[in-house]
TrEMBL record:
<protein>
    <submittedName>
        <fullName>ERI1 exoribonuclease 3-like protein</fullName>
    </submittedName>
</protein>
<dbReference type="InterPro" id="IPR012337">
    <property type="entry name" value="RNaseH-like_sf"/>
</dbReference>
<dbReference type="InterPro" id="IPR051274">
    <property type="entry name" value="3-5_Exoribonuclease"/>
</dbReference>
<dbReference type="InterPro" id="IPR036397">
    <property type="entry name" value="RNaseH_sf"/>
</dbReference>
<dbReference type="GO" id="GO:0003676">
    <property type="term" value="F:nucleic acid binding"/>
</dbReference>
<dbReference type="InterPro" id="IPR013520">
    <property type="entry name" value="Ribonucl_H"/>
</dbReference>
<dbReference type="Pfam" id="PF00929">
    <property type="entry name" value="RNase_T"/>
</dbReference>
Length: 131
């Protein structure tokens, strides 16, 4: 679990290396393929990531400064604001996988929401960014 995890700097460096290994970014962290992150809210990338990078004296790569907030996308798609990921799952009749706020489980659940929206014809585009 978390207490046995590597420190943030190590994980951040390994993540960037994985992006290079999968040909998403070059050696200078410039995107070489089209990709973006999808989140359920702006908290993690707009608030937490900048604070954590500042604490660890890490520069935030450009590709992490713009993303898709699925809550905003859903609101644009349906004209109603979702309060939570649980709300979105209930709206689409998705049975939750795992534990709420478990990083990997939230990813599986968020991908199921995104699939449903795509099936309804929604075309995602970046809608959030760091200032």
């Amino acid at each position: 679990m978390v207490e046995n995890a590597n420190d943030f700097t190590k994980v951040f460096i390994e993540f960037n290396q994985w992006l290079r290994d999968t040909n998403l970014i070059d050696d200078f962290c410039n995107p070489i393929s089209k990709f973006t992150f999808i989140t359920c809210g702006d908290w993690d990338l707009k608030k937490v990531l900048p604070l954590q990078c500042k604490l660890n004296d890490l520069e935030i790569p450009h590709y992490m400064k713009i993303w898709i907030n699925v809550k905003k996308s859903f609101a644009e798609h349906t004209n109603e604001w979702p309060q939570s990921q649980a709300y979105l799952m209930k709206h689409y009749g998705i049975e939750p996988i795992g534990r709420i706020h478990s990083g990997i489980d939230d990813c599986y659940n968020l991908s199921a929401i995104v699939k449903k929206m795509v099936q309804e014809g929604y075309v995602f585009k970046p809608n959030s960014r760091m200032k």
